[in-house]
Each structure stands twice: as C-alpha cells, then as structure tokens.
C-alpha cells in the first residue's frame, strides 16, 4: 500500500471529497466524503487484474487515507450489487466489522451473501428510492436508477457545505423490464433545489446516442431458441437478473425448462427469486444434473463464463470438461458484452464451440446484449435536467472521464468547474464552492492467495520477468580458503529450457570466476554469489540471447 | 516440433496439398503442394504470440513434413509482403539457402531486406500479374489482387491432377489508390476454364457486406489535420504504403511536412519509394530529428506502434520516453485496426495521450481505417465468378473458416466439397477430384531469443506458473548417515514475496522431514528432494494459499 500524504486538518463546515478508486480504471469504485469529523463512504468495489498483473486475484481500493479513521465512518452507501461496487466490502469490514452498510434490499442481500463467505454478519440499513436518512452530518436521499442489475440507487448527499448527487452506475432505459425508471422527476426536483457537485458514471460517455432498451433482447433470444433443434446454452453475467428473466421467459415461450449453472449464478438468482426480483413460473427451473436427461429441445442452460473465464461453466463445456456436451444442432448464446482484454479468451471459446459443431450467437452477430450504462445522449439529458454547478466524472478510464467532462461542458457547466481528476484527488466544498486542493498517493492493493496488500509492484515485475524469461539458479558450496567448489554447482533452469548438457559449458567458467575472486580477496558469500550471477548472466545472454532471472547461491564451507 | 505422421507415398499424377499454418489462427500462413516428387510452397509467414505464450518472439509454421524434402522444393511463392506471409522465410532458408523465392517486385524487395538482416542473399524470380511460369510440374499464373499492401498476387496453380486458385490475402476495393484492381476478369477466365480447388482468405468472412474503399480515409485524415493547431502524429502499420501515401497527401494539402519514424516504417517506405510504389513530392519528407525544430503546425509524424507495442514509437511518446512531446493542441491518429488481444495495450496508450492533453482519433471515433480483407459480400462475388468445384477456406480462426465455407455453400459449392480443415490436413487431388485423406500433427515452433523450436509447450506452462505463482527454491546439504542438515537450507522465493522471516517457520519442518526420511531408509538425493518439495508445498499452500513452483535440491555430503 502506498503511503498517502498526510491530509491537512479540515475546517469546520467544509466537505472533503476523495475518490479512492474507479477514476482512470474500470472497477474498485469508492469515494469518501468527510465533514465535521465524520466520514461517509460511497461504494467499495474491486478491480479485476490485467494481463500485466499475473496471478493477482483482485485489486482493492487503497484505503490508506481512511484506515486510521474507521471509528469516524458513519456508514458505507452501496449504490448497487455489482462486484466493482461491493467486492471490497469484506476486506474493509475485516478492519472494523460494525461499520453500517446502507443500500437497497437486493444490494444488501448480495453483499450479505458475500460477507457470509468471509464469516462476517454486517450491520445494515435497507433503504429504497425516495427515502431520506440522516447519518451524522450527512443527509442522504436515495433516487431510483436503472442499471444492468435491479434496485440500483443514486445518492444525493446534503451537508452544511453544499450538495452532491452521485449516480452510481446507471442508464436511462425508458422501457425497463421492471418498469423502474431512472427517476428523472427526482433529478429535476434536486436540480431545481440546486445540485452543487454532480458525480456521474462515465463508462459509456464515449458512445454517441442512447443505450437501447433491455426489452429489445427478448424477441431475439426467443427467435434463436425457437430455431434451435438441440440444446441451448446462454452465458451471461451472474447478477444480470433482467437478462436471466428474459432467458427464462424466452425458454417458457418455447416450451423449454431452464437449468441455472455456475455457483454465483445459482446463488444470485436464488436471492433474486426469494426477494421477488426474478419471476420464475412454477416448474420451470430444473437442476442441471437432472436437465441432461431431458430431450435436447426441452432445455436451456443458463451459465456463467461469458468473459472466457477458464474455470467457468462455458469454458469447461467448450473444452469437453463438463457433463454438458454441445455439438451439431445446439446453440450457444453469449448474451453479454466483451470486456476489453478478454477478446482472446472469448474467441478461443467461440472457436472451440464452433469446432464442436455448435451455432454460436453473440453480440457481434445478433442483438443479444445491451449495455448497462448511459450513453452520451442520456448523460446530456441528465446534465440539462440537473444543471449542476460543478461536475466530477467518475467510473471509467481517463478517456471516459474526458468524454463525460466534454458532455458536462456542452451542457453549460463551466470548464473550470469540471474536474477530470485521478484517484486520490482531494476536493473541498465550502459554501457551495468546490475546488481541487490536493492529491494523495493511491496504490494498487493486491489480493493474492491469502495475502492482502503484501504483493508489491516489484513482485509483479518479477513475475513478468519469470513469465517472459524464466530463471536459472546456481547453488554451490566453495572452500573458503581456495574458492574450490566442493559441492555443485547445481544448476536448475525453468521456462527457457536449454538441454541439461548445455550447462556443462558454463561450469568451468563458474569455477574459474570463483577461484579468481577468492584469490583476489573476495570472501563475502554475497559478493561471491554476484560473481556467479555475472558469469552466468554473460554466458546466457550471449549464448541463448535471453535474460532469465538469475538466482546465485554461494556458501562457504 | 511435433513429429508428423509419416506421409504415404504419393501416386504419380496425384497432387497433395497440406496447409501447414494459418488455419485456425491468424498468421504463419503456409501451404505445400506436391506432385510427381516435386514440392511447391505458397507463403511462409510468422504468427505473433498470445498472452498465454509469454516471452515468445515469434511462432513459425511446423515444417517437419517438408524439412527432409527441401531438395525437392521447386520454389516458394510469396503472395505479398506481410510478416504473416513472409516472416518465416529466413528460418526456412537457413536450412537451404538456394530455394528460389517467387513474388512481385515489392514483395521480394521486402523479403530481401529481411533476409539481409539474417545475412542471406536469396535466389529470386520477380513476377507480375498475368505472368505465367512453369516450375517443374507446376504451371503458375499470377493474378493481381488488392490488399493493404501494394503488389499482392493470387496464384493459379495448374498440375496434371487439376487446378488450384489461391487468393493470398485480398480484398476488392473498386477504387484502389493505385488503380490496381483485383483482377476479376482473370478470375472469370480461370473460372470459365475450370478451377478445381479455391483457397480463399477467410479473415473477414464473418463481416457482412463490403469492405469500404481505402480512398474514403483520405478526406478524413485531411480534415483532422486541418483542424489541428499543433503537431499531428499518425500511427499505422509499417508496410501500409497506401495509408502512408494518404497521410503524405493530406499533410501536403495542409502545408505540412512528414517525418517517418520507427525502423520498419523508415525501411519499408524507403523501399516503396525507391520502387515507385510511394509517391513523395520533393521536399516533403524530413528527418524526425530535424522535424522537431519545425513549427508544430508544419509537421506530421508518421509512426509505428498502432497496436500498443511497448517498444514502438507511439508507446514511447505516450510514456514521455521520446524526444517528441505530445500535448494540448496536438492530435494523434491511430489509422489502423485493433488486433484482438491488443485492446488493453492500445487503450493504455490512448488514455496516456489524452491525459497529456492530446486529441486522439481512432477507428472507434472516426473513419480512419478500412480493412485489407474481403468481407462476406466480396467473397460471394468471387465464388460466383469462379464457380469452383471444391473450396478450402484459408487464413483465419476456425470461426472465420466456417463463415467462409458458409459463403462457398451459399454460392453453390456442394457441402461435401467444402473443406473446413485444420493445419496439417492432407488433401489429395486426382483427375480434378479432391478429398481429405489424412492429418499430420502440427506443433508450434517457437522462436525465443536465439533458439528456434527449442522452447516447448511445457516450458510455456512453466512460464505461466512462474508468472501466476512465482517460485520457491530450497537448497540444502545433508549428512548422508543422519539426514542432519550441514549446509542450508537456503530458501529463495520470487514473485510471491513472503517476508524473509516467514521462512524461519518452515526450516524445522524441513529438518524433521529429512531426518525421518533418512531414518526410514531413504538415501537417494532425488527422493530426499521430493521430501523437501512435499513439506514446503504443504506449508506454502496452507499458510499462503499459493502454489508456487518448488525447486528442491538436496545434496548428500
């Protein structure tokens, strides 16, 4: 964890806002709001690692600036139940279990299921749209927003310094499946009253126009299913209740039953059904182990793995490593986006499925996915309805933040009031005036096996070197007086595999170098090991044109 | 290299066709044609590694089936000068330098420049469209095709067994920049005479409709340049002569000079200009070291790095690691496709450039790229004009080959005459009848540092484990009689970085396990090292929830 700059003392009546994650990246969304000694947190998500961060399980927001202040935290508002907004909660609650979680019914149910795996039972406050709560110096009003998971909320924060409207993730589907619209009437009323700072989801700010309605997908799913003589497998996100609802509806229309597959899919849809967010007609769901006994044209398998995750159901089906076989006459639908960086994994699966004879339907060849985020056109509506004094785009890579800021400016937010900032930016609001006053260092906090924050960027650099070059280790025991080798050298190499015999070339060189060093007066084991490193390094660079990691160990006997 | 199945003896008058690369992948295109003891090779390209093949420089076609027959090879036809068609030539010619290379003027000039770096001067035969050559039992007719590099050729092969038309890579731009159309008159004539087997580029077979003309990009480039107050940097492929031509033309229109940057860009455009494929008005080109002294609005930098390659010019500019600074008022144009797998690298650069203040124009926000490959509509034209008896789609992932085969069938090629096959498929043609008769094993041949074909898939698996988990090595010298440790254990770990002190936990365990093993009668050094492996493995899995590679070395003193 990076040490953050010491934050200055905050004047009474001033609101300090620090985005700790989600700016300049897609994931680990988190922001803190502090006034009069109390802190409010909005969201605490995880970021998934890139190919440059091999072996890392998750990346958490850097909470260094708040970790000694947890007693002052009045609560964590969770805008919705996606991993990039709630996934970091267990790691935060490990430090202090009784920080209250505030969110909608579904959001809290999902985070509670997650916390149960970490053996934490949280303090919660369930809220719904329109509800107002006072938490210390923060007056919170929750506003319904539409997203790719039900029950998402924006939060309007009123403090002595002024007001903030934070959208969470949202879009403005005008025909949502659950008829729960993004509440533009509330946005209008809040705008009328005066929103000082607007923090809006930037994910799709580069996309012109409007995000199509989720409802458009249903007929396509039904049509594809109706034309499939065999099995249908649909892969999508395991929390996308409305997408799963449409798959269930399309299955029922076509006289098919539905088997949910994948641990997170089964768990999340169980929660959604129990709470009434997912409507499953009696007798439609069937356990997938029983479903394999149904005729092929009577079943739809609804699975995880749409991003090519190697251990998920879809990958295993494609690799013939699952009891469900997919082939000629069967259809696989990837009803999902293609998250950048996953292309190779996803196309590997698509190719394997096609090779097995299946018909594969995906976003590129049919209308089986719509985004969960507001496009540029919708953002413009929001800015025009709310007319904020200041804007700080959140949730997205730098290019997304810049595009969102562009929309803010188009709508009339003054350029100097539009803040395109990075994680760790320190903003202050006083008397409804907002300015950027500083920047704290924000690092990556890696979850890796059982460790949190132990793995460093230097370790990841080592991993990348090991991946690209492999390593060579040389162990030897030398006679202290002469430098003569008495044990070894034992040479081991992995990942670049010269023949064993190749090592014979270098052994005399190592002996010669060690003897010369000892004769030259070198006695220290570390320095002798450096002699070996240089000798082996030169040889391997010249001979094999590679730069493996070299681990020399010389012990004096 | 995988051992290939022994190929059966070939009956006189029968043509054997084996695609050795490029089927089920995008790259390392190569096919062999054999009749009456003589072999013709078409193309010999490289494949670029994926993220699952870390450290690999290049992947070559597996030439195991032909490497003992090089004396029988009458020549290598190179359809055009792209790396995925010519990049493997130096490695093949290292085995036998005097195999003749047959190709167009530009293609041969590019491969000769490449061979010069390998210190090989090849035997060449320059051909042009319409030309006919007899090489042993093969009558070759070359046909002009249009692609994203000038001077590309399809090749029509006539043998005693029948005829093959191989497109190489192509599209059918009807308004090409150099007015050199794909020669549909020749396709029509050859079809009229009877094409037995048609081998067509599948890359864009999934894309509906028609690939737009290269000419459409010119006005967009000029418009973007005209609106840029500062510097313009354009990144594209280093062999895309027509794209560079359009950049030069747009620069001239806007009163700017052009500096070429990147070793391959400078080399290839030098060749193209010398041979008259690139038309550069007097005084337009300027060395980039001098160009930095021009006013910003008088210069366009034309660079490599459009795929996010970390060492290329564009990456270095984005990282402030280049003498050219890009910021407010400047525009960077990525006039290129986004090859799947490169998304994260490319967007990392785009974000960095935007953060520096630059305007970034790319395929997703402006019409600055068109593909070099025929879309489904164009392929359908070809099949209809040629009316082949048989079709074997080439060049593409499995999904592309299947899409191409679908088009063949739509056009009337019988399904049983449409071969969707993988690398190593063995086809035979006799009396104009084609069938698939076998399959040889095809492996990946990795170029890695100075080695070719030495690195195995097992090594790559090791590299992936090292990348994800790191390693731990334990060296120790024990007393043979007692199992007492006399030197060590020396424990080293990289890539998962527990504190040094953590190792202290496990040292007593190692001593105990070794003593018990020796007391139990184990004497063998290998078996003792396995005792250490198990002990350390159990500990690290339980304690750290990781599975690093474990390298135990036990030596008996």
TrEMBL record, chains A, B:
The active site is at 201 (proton donor), 373 (proton acceptor). The lineage of its organism: Bacteria, Bacillati, Actinomycetota, Actinomycetes, Micrococcales. Zn(2+) binds at residues 80, 82, 84-85, 147, 169, 395. It comes from the Bacteria. It is an enzyme of class 3 (hydrolase). Its cofactor is Zn(2+); Ca(2+). This is Ribonuclease J. The keyword Phosphoprotein does not apply. It is found in: Cytoplasm. Its EC number is 3.1.-.-. GO terms for molecular function: 5'-3' RNA exonuclease activity; RNA binding; RNA endonuclease activity; zinc ion binding. Its main location: cytoplasm. Ca(2+) binds at residues 55, 57, 448. An RNase that has 5'-3' exonuclease and possibly endonuclease activity. Involved in maturation of rRNA and in some organisms also mRNA maturation and/or decay. Keywords: Calcium, Cytoplasm, Endonuclease, Exonuclease, Hydrolase, Metal-binding, Nuclease, RNA-binding, rRNA processing, Zinc. It comes from Pseudoclavibacter chungangensis. SUPFAM superfamilies: Metallo-hydrolase/oxidoreductase (SSF56281). Binds 2 Zn(2+) ions per subunit. It is not clear if Zn(2+) or Mg(2+) is physiologically important. Binds 1 Ca(2+) cation per subunit. Seen in 1 crystal structure, it is not clear if it is physiologically important. Residues 27-221 form the Metallo-beta-lactamase domain.
């Amino acid at each position: 964890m990076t040490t953050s700059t010491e934050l200055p003392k905050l004047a009474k009546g001033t609101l300090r806002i620090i985005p700790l994650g989600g700016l300049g990246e897609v994931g680990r969304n988190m922001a803190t709001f502090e006034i009069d000694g109390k802190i409010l947190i909005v969201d605490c998500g995880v970021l998934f690692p890139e190919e440059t961060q091999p072996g890392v399980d998750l990346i958490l927001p850097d909470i260094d600036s708040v970790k000694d202040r947890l007693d002052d935290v009045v609560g964590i508002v969770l805008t919705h139940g996606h991993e990039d907004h709630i996934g970091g909660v267990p790691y935060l609650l490990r430090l202090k279990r009784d920080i209250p979680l505030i969110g909608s019914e579904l959001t809290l149910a999902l985070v509670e299921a997650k916390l149960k795996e970490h053996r934490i039972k949280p303090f919660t406050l369930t809220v719904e749209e329109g509800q107002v709560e006072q938490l210390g110096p923060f007056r919170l009003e929750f506003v319904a927003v539409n997203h790719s998971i039900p029950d998402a909320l924006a939060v309007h924060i009123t403090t002595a310094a002024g007001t903030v409207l934070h959208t969470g993730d949202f879009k403005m589907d005008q025909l949502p499946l659950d008829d729960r619209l993004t509440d533009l009437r509330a946005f209008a009323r809040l705008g009328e009253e005066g929103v000082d700072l607007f923090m809006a989801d930037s994910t799709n700010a580069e996309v012109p126009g409007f995000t199509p309605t989720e409802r458009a997908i249903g007929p396509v799913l039904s049509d594809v299913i109706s034309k499939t003589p065999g099995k249908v497998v649909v892969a999508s996100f395991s929390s996308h209740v409305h997408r799963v609802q449409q798959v269930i509806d399309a299955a029922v229309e076509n006289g098919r039953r539905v088997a949910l597959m994948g641990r997170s899919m089964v768990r999340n849809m169980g929660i959604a059904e129990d709470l009434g967010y997912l409507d499953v007609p009696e007798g439609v769901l069937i356990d997938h182990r029983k479903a394999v006994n149904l005729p092929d044209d009577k079943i739809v398998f609804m699975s995880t793995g749409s991003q090519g995750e190697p251990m998920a159901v879809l990958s295993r089906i494609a690799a013939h490593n699952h009891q469900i076989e997919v082939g000629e006459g069967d259809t696989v639908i990837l009803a999902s986006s293609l998250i950048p960086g996953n292309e190779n994994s996803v196309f590997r699966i698509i190719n394997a499925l096609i090779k097995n004879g299946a018909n594969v339907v995906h976003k590129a060849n049919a209308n089986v996915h719509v985004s969960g985020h507001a496009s540029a056109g919708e953002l413009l509506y929001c800015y025009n309805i709310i007319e904020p004094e200041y804007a700080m785009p959140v949730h997205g890579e730098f290019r997304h933040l810049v595009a969102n800021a562009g929309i803010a400016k188009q709508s009339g937010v003054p350029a100097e009031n539009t803040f395109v900032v990075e994680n760790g930016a320190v903003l202050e609001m006083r008397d409804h005036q907002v300015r950027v006053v500083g920047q704290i260092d924000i690092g990556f906090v890696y979850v890796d096996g059982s460790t949190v924050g132990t793995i460093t960027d230097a370790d990841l650099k080592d991993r990348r070197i090991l991946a690209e070059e492999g390593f060579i280790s040389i162990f030897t025991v030398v006679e202290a007086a002469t430098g003569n080798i008495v044990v070894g050298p034992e040479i081991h190499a992995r990942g670049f595999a010269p023949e064993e015999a190749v090592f014979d070339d270098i052994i005399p060189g190592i002996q010669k170098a060690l003897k010369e060093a000892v004769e030259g007066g070198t006695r220290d084991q570390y320095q002798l090991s450096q002699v070996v490193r240089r000798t082996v390094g030169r040889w391997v660079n010249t001979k094999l044109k590679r730069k493996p990691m070299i681990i020399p160990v010389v012990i004096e006997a």
